[in-house]
C-alpha cells in the first residue's frame, strides 16, 4: 500500500472535520493554562475515534495514546493549544468571541491538524506498528512562567511507554502555503529575559545637576547594550539583545528617582548565550556606576535552543518530500523561541514549519499580528505529514541506524 498517497487521501476525506474543529477552537480562544474548553474538545474527539486519553497533564494538557497491532517504536506528536492577548478585527463568521483574546499564531490549526492525524492513524490502527502519543500542550506562549512543555515532561508524558522520537510543526507565514520548511541542528533560538532597575536621585527638571538622572543613565545603558551584538560577539553567530520596555517618571518636569528596563536576548548556541548573559549585568552596572547611580539586574532563562536531531531530520525531509502537492525547503535559523526545545532535550526529533502565506486568500500578515490568517487548504497537509512521520518512525524497519 502506498501510505503517502493514502494518508493524503485520508486527510482529504476528513478535511471538512479538521476545518470545522479549527474554526470552533478559533472562535473560543483561551490563554495559557486556561485551555479548559479546548482540552475538553480534544478529549471528546480522541475518545470518539477510540484513542485512550489521559488528562489533565501538565496542568491543562491532554495526552492521547494509540497502540498499533504490532510491536514497534513509540512516537510522540505535539500540538500547542494556547491563544494570545490580542483583539481580533477580522470580522470572520468564526472570529474570536472573547474580547482581547485571539488565536494569532496558528495554535488552533495545530490542534485541528493533530486531531486530523489521530483520525488518520486510528483508521489505520491495524497496520500500525508501535505506539503513537498525541500531546496537546498548554501555554507555549507563556515563556514568562516557563511554558507548558516542562510541566508535561514532569508529568511523565515521555515515559510509560518511553518515547523514542518526537515531532511537531508550526504554521508560519514566512513560507508559501503547502511548503514544509525544516533544517538540521539549531532551528530556533534560546531565549532569556532581563530586567534592569536603574536607581538614581530625582529632582526638578530645571536643575538636573542636583540629581542623578535615572532616565539619562537608562538611555546610556540602552545604547551600550547594543555594543554586545555589534562589537563583542562573533558577527557570524546570530544573536540579538533588545530592550522592549522602558518605564520611568510621572510628569514632564520631574526627574524620577528610578527607571526600569526590560528586554530579551536570543542566541543559537550555548556559549554565545552564556557570554551575553554575563555581559548584560556587567555593562549595565558599569554604566550606572559611571554616573553615580545604582543598578539591580535580574536575568532569567526562558527556552533553550530548538535543536533538531540531524539524522532524524534527514529522514523527516525524505518523508516530507514524498507528499504530493507540497514542497520541502531548508529553513533559515530563526531568533524566535519555542518550548518544544524542552522535548528535544529529552528525545531525538524534529520541529518543522508549514507555510500558510497565500496573498489571494489574504494570508500575508505575520504570526502574532491581529490580522494573522490561516490558509485552511494547508491543514490537510499538516495532518497527513504528522500521520506519515508517526507511521514511518514507529516502524522498526524504517530509518534503523
What descriptive keywords fit this protein?
single chain, 401 residues, alpha/beta, Aminopeptidase, Alpha-Beta Plaits, eight-stranded mixed β-sheet, four-stranded antiparallel β-sheet
Walkthrough of the structure:
This protein folds into 2 domains: 3-187 and 305-394, Zn peptidases (Aminopeptidase); 190-301, Alpha-Beta Plaits (2-Layer Sandwich). It is 34% helix and 28% strand. The chain is built from 10 helices and 16 strands. The strands form 4 sheets. Strands 1-2-4-3-5-16-6-15 form an 8-stranded mixed sheet. Strands 10-12-8-13 form a 4-stranded antiparallel sheet, covered by helices on one side. Helix 2 runs antiparallel to helix 4 (107-123) and helix 6 (214-232) packs antiparallel against helix 7 (270-290). The two termini are 24 Å apart.
Q: What's the helix and strand layout?
A:
Layout: H1 3-13, H2 15-27, H3 36-48, E1 52-57, E2 61-67, E3 70-80, H4 107-123, E4 129-137, H5 149-154, E5 165-176, E6 179-182, E7 185-188, E8 190-199, E9 203-204, H6 214-232, E10 239-248, E11 254-255, E12 258-267, H7 270-290, E13 294-301, E14 306-308, H8 310-321, E15 327-330, H9 340-346, E16 349-357, H10 379-394
Parallel strand pairs: 3-4, 3-5, 5-16, 6-15
Antiparallel strand pairs: 1-2, 2-4, 6-16, 7-14, 8-12, 8-13, 9-11, 10-12
Helix pairs in contact: 1-10, 2-4, 4-10, 6-7
Strand order of the largest sheet: 1-2-4-3-5-16-6-15
Q: What form results from the Cα inertia axes? A: elongated
What sequence of helices (H) and strands (E) makes up the elements?
A: HHHEEEHEHEEEEEHEEEHEEHEHEH
The strand count comes to 16
State the distance separating the first and last CA atoms.
24 Å
Structural class: alpha/beta
Computed over alpha carbons, the radius of gyration is 24 Å
Percent helix, as a range, is 25-40%
Main sheet, how many strands, which sense, barrel?
Answer: 8 strands, mixed
Unreliable stretches covering 5 or more consecutive residues: none
- Assign the CATH class of the largest domain: Alpha Beta
Number of structurally distinct domains: 2
